[in-house]
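Researcher: We're teaching a course module on how sequence relates to structure. For the next exercise, students receive a sequence and then see the predicted structure as C-alpha cells, so they can try to spot secondary structure elements on their own. Here is the exercise chain.
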Amino acid sequence: MTSSVVVASASEKHNPGLDGVRGIAILLVFFSHYGGGHKSTNIVIHLWSMMCDFGWVGVDLFFVLSGFLITGILYDSINDNDRVKNFYARRALRIFPLFYGVLVAFLLLTPVLKLHWRAEHVLYFVYLTNLMPLLHPIPSPGACVSLGHFWSLAVEEQFYLVWPFIVWKMRDRNKLLSTCGVLIAVAFILRVILIASGVNYLIVYELLFTRMDSLLAGGALALIIRGPHRKIPYRAVIVFTGLAIVAMIFFNRGTDHENVIVSTIGYSIIALFCAGIVYAAWKGGGIIGSIAATSPLRFFGRYSYGMYIYHGLLMSVLFPLIYPIEQYCKSAVIGGFVYLIFSLVITLVVAMLSFHFFETPFLRLKKYFV
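Model: And here is the predicted structure for the students to work with:
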C-alpha cells in the first residue's frame, strides 16, 4: 500500500478537528456582526470591537475548509461511475432545504411582513447574490429581511458548479495542483487590476473569481495530503502569515477589509493562514489541533450552517435590543456582553431546532447517494 493511499484513506474518516474549525469560523463571523462596529471611547469596548470586526475572516476559513473537503471528495471519487449524481445530490440535500426553505417562507409571509419584491431579487434564488454589488443599489425586500450574507453561499455554489468537472476531467494530481497554483495567482492579479481600476472594494470581496484563492488553497491542501508522504511546514506558514496579518492591521490602523492592501495581497495571505489552521486541525495534536477538537467548538461546528443562515436573518430582530439591554445593565461593557451572549444563544437554539426538526430528514437521504 502506497503512502498516498494511506493518507487518502485517513482523510476519508470523520475528523473531529475539522468540526472544530467550522465552530471557530461561525463564531468569528457571529462576533463580527454582533460584537463589532462600536465607536466607543471606552478602551475595553474599542479593543473588543476591533477584534470582533476582524471576524470577517471566518468566511475565508469556511472557504478554505470547503475547498479542502470538497476537493478531497472529488478527487477520491474520480473513478466512481455515479460521481456526478452522488456529489450533487449530497450537496443539494445538505444545502438546499434550509436555503430555499427560508426564501419560500419569506415569499409566503410577504403579505404579513409587507415585503416588496423586485425582479432583481431573483438573484437570491439562483445563488447570484454576490453579483448584486455589480448592479445599481438593490434594496432589501423589507426591513425585516436581511439576506446580504447569502453572498458567501453564492460563491461556494458557483465553485461547486465548475471545480468538480475540472477535477474529474484533469484527474492527475500534479496537474490539478498546478491548476490550483495558477488560479490562485489569477485571483490575486485580478484583484490588483480591479482595485487599481477603481472598482469598489465590495465587488472584489464578493466575486468568485477574485475570492477563489481561498477555496483553491483548501483544494491544493487536499491534493497535497493525497500525494507521497511529506511534511508540510504548517507551523511556519501560520507564524509568518499571522505576523503578516498583524502587520496589515497595524499599517491600516484597523481590521476592515475595504482597503488596498487587504483587498489585494491580504486575501492571499489570509488564505494561506487559514490553510495552515485547517491542516493543523486535520493532522491533530499540537495546540491548534487540540483546541479544534474540543467539544464546545465541535458542538458549534455541527450547527454552523444553520447559525450562519439564521444569524443574518435575526439581525433585524436582535439589533434593536442592544441599547435597552445596556441601559438595563447600566453599563455599556456589561450590557454589550449580555447582548452578545443572549444573541448567540437565540441564534444557536434556532439553528438547533432547524437542524433536528427540518434539515435532518433531508440529511438522512444522503445514504442513498454514496
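Model: If you want an answer key for the exercise: Confidence is low (pLDDT under 50) at residues 1-12. Residues 3-368 form one domain.
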